[in-house]
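Fold this sequence, please.
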Amino acid sequence: MIIMSIQEFVVNFANQFDDTELEVFNPETNFRDLEEWSSLIGLAVMNMIAKKYDIKITPAELKSTNTIQELFNLVNNK
């Protein structure tokens, strides 16, 4: 079951970053390669997923993903 569009998820994900332009983000973006990526942003992403989608993911689950698409798939499969 798809709970959201990938485009919406990419925008919500990108909004967790202060200095990285929205154009940088797409489903294939390897967010770990972004200069701004940090554990703090990881926590913000987990919080955004919990608030917007009412889905809790663990730090280990987040760590198992590299691209926004992989994270989207993880959230959709919960």
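The chain has four helices and no strands. The mean pLDDT is 95.
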